[in-house]
Amino acid sequence: MSRERWNAVDAYTAELLIGADEALDHAVRSSAEAGLPPIAVSPNQGKLLYLLARMHGASSVLELGTLGGYSTIWLARALAHSGRLVTVELDPAYAEVAAANIQRAGLSSVVEQRVGPALDELLRLQAGGAGPFDMTFIDADKKGTPEYFEAALELSRPGSLIITDNVVRDGALIDPDTQDPGVLGMRRFQELLGADRRAGGRVSATTIQTVGSKGYDGFTLALVGG
Ligand code: SAH
Ligand code: DHB
Ligand code: MG
After folding, report:
1. Residue 121 CB–ligand 1 contact under 6 Å
2. Phi and psi (nearest 5°) for 206?
């Protein structure tokens, strides 16, 4: 099956099930115009995050990796009344693009943006007594994922959901020769989850491979509390 077919099916289903969306479409356009890399989740993936947050009844969400705010908007829209979303981004210029997109989506009062390295911000959130978050979306640099996951666990409660993006990376996840630090980070993450399971399981997790307009990749879903 070709990538062209994945793209065409993604476009076909997204047009029917999602359609045009002023705030989201603008976020994609303004991000491209500002020179941000085109690596936000796809529309169908964004809606998956939105549906998971709704199914979970989430009222507090933590996101690592804001980029231009595309996934932020999807997640923030899913929050129950008086919900809060904290999103962390390393690059201040990206965070500015995101702020405008979040404002345009009418979500500025729901979203708290933090600018800095994810691990520093996670420790700061812990020190400040933040959380527990109902749901965390880990989507920052890939090599730090195992550390972000451990820190996210500290900011969770039994029943919290931790979702991690980009865990498969075109199948490189299982390439024994890869030197890519991001891929090695994702392999360390899967191995961490394996060790956790064998030790009795702080979390119950699954990894789902995805294809579509963002290529061949995947998500890991982890439910805290076994
Ligand atoms: N969640 C976004 C995409 C995020 S792309 C969406 O789907 O719409 C990954 C983001 O992580 C980039 O914006 C990148 O600047 C940011 N990032 C990279 N290293 C980081 C770090 N150490 N801490 C926080 N963010 C980081
Ligand atoms: C890439 C894709 C992502 O979804 C992301 O969060 C970071 C990087 C990429 O394809 O490089
Ligand atoms: Mg991603």
Report:
1. no
2. -145, 150
Tally of CA atoms within 13 A in the half-sphere of 9 that contains its CB: 11
Closest of 71, 84, 78, 86 to residue 57, by C-alpha: 78
Taking CA atoms only, the protein residue closest to ligand 2 atom 3 is: 39
The answer to whether 136 and 219 have CB atoms below 8 angstroms apart is no
Q: pTM score, two decimals?
A: 0.98
End-to-end CA distance of the chain: 36
- For residue 219, the cross-strand partners are 165, 208
Q: Which two tokens stand for residue 73?
A: 């908007």
Q: Peptide bond before 146: cis, by omega within 30 degrees of 0?
A: no
pLDDT tens digits along 159-198 = 999 999 999 999 999 999 999 999 999 999 999 999 999 9
